[in-house]
Design brief:
Layout (H helix, E strand, L loop, with lengths): L1 E6 L5 H13 L3 E6 L3 H4 L2 H8 L15 H8 L2 E7 L1 H9 L5 H8 L4 E5 L3 H5 L1 H12 L3 E2 L3 E4 L5 E5 L3 H13 L18 E7 L3 E2 L5 E2 L6 H12 L3 E7 L10 E5 L2 H12 L4 E4 L6 E3 L20 E3 L3 H8 L6 E8 L7 H12 L3 E6 L10 E8 L4 E8 H15 L1
Parallel strand pairs: 1-2, 1-3, 3-4, 4-5, 8-11, 8-13, 11-12, 13-16, 16-17
Antiparallel strand pairs: 6-7, 9-10, 14-15, 17-18, 18-19
Bound molecules: cytidine-5'-monophosphate.
Length: about 400
């Protein structure tokens, strides 16, 4: 696929180098179009060496090929990362004062913009209006991530991680109706409604504190993205996830296990497949304090009484809220003296009675908050039906293959 990667002049331009590498590694031809300001942050040799193509900001270079028109006409996908406040403004106004904005006017393929700027600039009414204009014209403008900005300040305005941008951009062309030439992608989940839970639940202790876990939500988001790309209607119940929502997916944000249970069960009434990828808290405080728990002068800490949460996966597997529904779980396991990871997984598969259980070993360089994952997929009897190791998208595709083979 031919991708045009526009890079505007912000400090986050260095992250676009990683994005370029990811797109190249995925086998795509990438032409980088930096603005002049972008070259203040990352120089032309870096873009040209990594893309293997010229990287000019100027319409007056490469005149014989009329680059400002030909680039846009031949592109299958255009990504602008980072999209600065200035770039958003120029794009919204339809200006053509450099090669990047000229190309934005000539492309007919899906366009994804990943904004990055200080929070004040992102929240300014002028920027809000520019984003609204671009979205109304069909440009996919991602929400920036929240977190540390250039200096010591934090807030909304960080460029999302390169892997998230790449995945969101590629999903635009892989998904049906994206408006561009799509890569051949099996549509074997077309007509199916899948419900996926992702992230980790938080149980309130008091109005400001909670019991939680370290799940990033990445595997669940990869499941949502790949299911959408394979044609499914996707409802994603996201517990405390700070990732960019995949395009074309309905996201229901939740915090506690009770909220997650309610949202998943409501969506599951109309679902063909339910995948519980969320790390659900096993316990919750019996009675969360109404006011912030005070530190006592005598140093005594009151014990907090906990009770078990319902096992949502086991309930769904037992009840089947829609006849014929396929129920899938995840199990993060560590081996111990008594049994290895797979033996624990087998026991869990039989106990929970889900149709499929994806077992992954945690604490060995795969699992939580890292790019890669490795799973063994078991059926309800504990038999191995598939194994997959790779990116979380790769693992997700392997899981959908296993779901598909169930019929
Ligand atoms: O028992 P364990 O927590 O290891 O099981 C993991 C699987 O069960 C995951 O699919 C998780 O989403 C689900 N689960 C659940 N409700 C709970 C605990 C886990 O649905 N209370």
């Amino acid at each position: 696929m031919r991708i045009v990667l526009g890079v505007a002049g912000g400090i986050a331009a260095y992250k676009a180098v990683l994005l370029l590498r990811l797109l190249r590694e995925a086998g795509h031809e990438v032409r980088v179009v930096p603005t002049r300001a972008a070259l203040e942050f990352v120089g032309r040799p870096t873009w040209e060496a990594l893309s293997g193509q010229p990287a000019t900001p100027d319409v007056f270079d490469d005149v014989p090929h009329v680059a400002h028109v030909s680039l846009g006409q031949s592109a299958d996908l255009m990504v602008v990362a980072p999209a600065t406040a200035d770039l958003l403004s120029r794009a919204a106004a339809g200006r053509a004062d450099d090669l990047l904005t000229s190309t934005l006017l000539t492309v007919r393929c899906p366009v994804l913009m990943a904004p990055a700027m200080h929070t004040e600039m992102w929240e300014h009414p002028a920027t809000r209006a520019n984003v609204a204009t671009l979205r109304a014209r069909g440009v996919h403008v991602l929400e920036p991530a929240s977190g540390r900005l250039t200096g010591t300040d934090t807030g909304a305005g960080r460029l999302p991680e390169p892997a998230e941008i790449a995945a969101a951009a590629l999903a635009l062309v892989a998904s049906p109706g994206a408006g561009g030439p799509s890569e051949p992608r099996r549509q074997d989940l077309a007509g199916r409604h899948v419900v996926i839970s992702a992230g980790g639940t938080r149980e309130p202790l008091d109005p400001v504190r909670y019991l939680g876990n370290r799940s990033s939500g990445r595997q669940g988001y990869a499941l949502a993205r790949t299911a959408r790309a394979r044609g499914a209607r996707v409802t994603l119940v996201a517990a405390n996830v700070a990732l960019v929502a995949p395009a074309g997916v309905d996201v229901i944000p939740v915090e506690s296990t009770a909220q997650l249970r309610e949202a998943v069960r409501a969506a599951a009434k109309d679902a063909d497949v339910v995948v519980m990828a969320a790390a659900v808290a096993d316990f919750r405080p019996v009675a969360p304090a109404v006011h912030k728990i005070k530190k006592r002068d005598d140093g005594v800490v009151e014990p907090i009484a906990l009770e078990a949460n319902p096992d949502i996966l086991a309930e769904l597997a037992a009840e089947r809220l829609r006849p014929g529904q396929i129920v899938v779980g995840f199990a993060a396991e560590t081996g111990d003296d008594g049994a290895d990871v797979l033996a624990h997984g087998r026991a869990k598969a039989r106990r929970k009675r889900a149709d499929l259980l994806a077992v992954n070993a945690v604490g060995e360089g795969v699992g939580f908050a890292v790019a890669d994952n490795a799973v063994t997929i078991l059926d309800a009897g504990g038999n191995v039906v598939a194994e997959a190791a790779g990116t979380k998208d790769f693992v997700a595709d392997a899981l959908w293959d296993a779901v598909h083979s169930l019929g």
